[in-house]
């Protein structure tokens, strides 16, 4: 849990922003085995790194995956989601021919929708202390 609360710094900001993402397969079909999920975690970790985000936690079952991502404020969650779904679909299709039968119309592995929920955050007293420290009495 300590890793989730890690505060990161950018050029002009200090932040701790996390999003819980859930992607489901097209038509909720059972698609993934452990080997697919293991490879998918690596792919999604790499995509997050390209966005200067961090995949904190990953888990999945045969028809959906959960991700906990620590992301910078300059990043649009929708852009990250599109890249995560697009890159993972393309790479899994290339690396696992056995998955091709699960790609529906227009070669889609994932449902067009997704869940994104904000997670965590600093306790109010930590925010208050940070604000107070910005303008010391003088």
From TrEMBL:
Domain of life per record = Bacteria
Give residue ranges for domain Transposase IS200-like: 14-134
Q: Which SMART domains match?
A: Y1_Tnp
Q: What would you give as a GO molecular function for this chain, any one? A: DNA binding
Instruction: List GO BP terms, alphabetically.
Output: DNA transposition
**Known Pfam families for this protein?**
Y1_Tnp (PF01797)
SUPFAM superfamilies on file: Transposase IS200-like (SSF143422)
Gene3D superfamilies from the UniProt entry: Transposase IS200-like (3.30.70.1290)
* Record's protein name: Putative transposase
- List the source organism: Micromonospora olivasterospora
């Amino acid at each position: 849990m300590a890793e989730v609360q890690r505060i990161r710094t950018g050029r002009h900001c200090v932040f701790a922003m996390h999003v819980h993402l859930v992607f489901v397969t097209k038509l909720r079909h059972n698609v993934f085995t452990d080997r697919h999920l293991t490879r998918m975690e690596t792919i999604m970790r790499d995509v997050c790194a390209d966005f200067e985000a961090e995949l904190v936690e990953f888990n999945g079952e045969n028809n959906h995956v959960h991700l906990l991502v620590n992301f910078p404020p300059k990043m649009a969650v929708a852009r990250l989601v599109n890249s995560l779904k697009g890159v993972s679909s393309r790479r899994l299709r290339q690396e696992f021919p056995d998955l091709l039968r699960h790609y529906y119309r227009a070669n889609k592995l994932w449902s067009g929708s997704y869940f994104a929920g904000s997670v965590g955050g600093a306790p109010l007293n930590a925010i208050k202390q940070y604000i107070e420290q910005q303008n010391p009495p003088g």
